[in-house]
């Protein structure tokens, strides 16, 4: 912009940006409350089950925390994988199937072909990234609706999984892999730290790189974003590739945790992850998909389900009951 | 003609001491308004002056903090107003977004508002519906059929459909119709036609309240004018004979001497854009030159190819023939990204669809075109630098906002447009393409936008501006090219040619059937 003195530089009625911090209006206070509503809810749930007589002695024990976190590590990664396409405005319903596919690839490489653990993990990551690339090309290049095309991808992956395994579990993987999966550090399973590192990287890419910022712009208004020169196709393709790769990390973590692979459909991973990602939009940066919100979302669901299970609820109590409440929470707080 | 017409001196709507505060700011400070029956009453004022807030308080969209309104003798407290009550009292609103469904027929659009006539068994009585709607259309002199798809209609016809639909349930002319910027997106001929249609309704006794930024049409059509400034009524005028220049002085409150583009450059520099027989879509063999430091206007009716031409230069429409040269070099962008990289900027026509990122913040919108600038050492985003730059940008371009972390969707139209212009010129383009640069923008924001554009030309930028608003081109441009049927049909110099000459060229040249 021209820096020469402009006649518009000091209009009397103009509210200078940032001057509104002098006093906080009720609306602003509400806004801050909203940002923290989800973590506060998590704390309330944890406190409740720590004091509630039937679960008091079990809920806040190292064992329970360890089990819950380990079980949620795969869901956390799948939810993290979902964020990339969701932020740039696309669904990716194949992340669950991609995770299982990577799980199968990883286990089969070790069990059926005798590969070493690190080779198998590399292969699984590559396979996941390839699946993501295929999704990305279909959505970005051929402009197919991601809702339909990624559901199709999930179905196709399921077909491949069932064809290869014949519906049977794969066992007999590299010993080092199972050891890694059961090792604990600081009282927590090692995989939890792997998940943390991956999510930290995802958070960094999404908030501290031009690429991540561009994804938010594309998701907000793709036509505007193209007209300011963002490469929509390339960035969308990359988002799906990252999604596939992170889902593949979830698959390898699953291999390490279970010591093999189950030819599962992946929906048991997809739906809790979707729930968490959407629940996450109510916190920290309301209205936006974000990594910290998603993590708290997963933990909120996990803590609620764990608490209810420990207090004697039936096993059908799942994340499903929590997802419909998401919009309600958001609306009640005046989003 | 109509036995129920009320005497023209009687007040149809009286609002008294309407007050509304948002947070600590008084958006309306004891505003009063008297609208006489059977007149067209224009509400004017800058963005954020309170006219829209008043309309929304009357509509019951906002709860006013105080005040009352009398409609046809019935008095209602505005603090208890709600949309059903406003409707019950006989207020009808047509918003800028008309709420029509393009893929449905005119009759279906009517029925979705007032209900389908149903026969026994839940079947829709299509014949009865079409007959009824045909009657309404005839009554409103709208020359379309009930079975036409709304998407196939011209913009002024669509607006009149929305008007007729809003008033469909009145017996005579007892309702008060409120139109919010009906012509903001209409080209000259369409808005004239709409104004004539509204005038005919008013002459038959309809009371109409009109919010508009286009002073020319207000001058033509309004019987009375109320001007808002800073939440108060700044001036009122009744009766014809008000000139646009006087109105803009009333809006700006004396601090403003009317729109002008500022001093023109004495000598434009070397050519920055040269088109030689360019063909693209509806554009056939356009040849033109834009020099550094000059503003070239593109006039013409909607569909004359103005937008297509800009898009072709910007690389988002394929070029089918001819050549382009940018700063002396052959120019053949394959995408907007290419065009931006070699120094072209575009401010698109439809700021909602192509300009802003509505749910992102002012800061994010301002930074999107230059994100890599803040990518320090390929390691982290320089948030602090970004905030400082954004604050400076917002101040320099007089974007009124509650802070740089406000979602852009919450800003008023004029401020959104200033922000889009500010953001898209951050790379200091050598050539700036503008498509309807001040559509739906109030007169003061316009002046600020024009000043920014003049600053840009002073630093050597060439500007090609397409606009359906001739007054804008006259004020802003050094030369005006008339685009008609995809070719340049004439060139005008605002300093030499009068407005009338150019208007008649735009209308007559392409439209021999004009009434």
From TrEMBL, chain A:
The UniProt entry, under InterPro entries, shows: ABC_transp_permease
Its keywords, alphabetically, are: Cell membrane, Membrane, Transmembrane, Transmembrane helix
Q: Where are the transmembrane segments?
A: 36-53, 65-84, 116-139, 151-173, 185-206
Record's bilayer topology term: Multi-pass membrane protein
Predominantly, its location class is: membrane
For this protein, the record's CDD domains field holds: TM_PBP1_transp_AraH_like
Subcellular location per UniProt equals: Cell membrane
Q: Which domain of life is it from?
A: Bacteria
Q: Pfam families in the record, alphabetically? A: BPD_transp_2
Please name the PANTHER family in this protein's record. ABC TRANSPORTER PERMEASE PROTEIN YPHD-RELATED-RELATED (PTHR32196), RIBOSE IMPORT PERMEASE PROTEIN RBSC (PTHR32196:SF72)
Q: What is this protein called?
A: ABC transporter permease
Q: Which organism is it from?
A: Actinomadura fibrosa
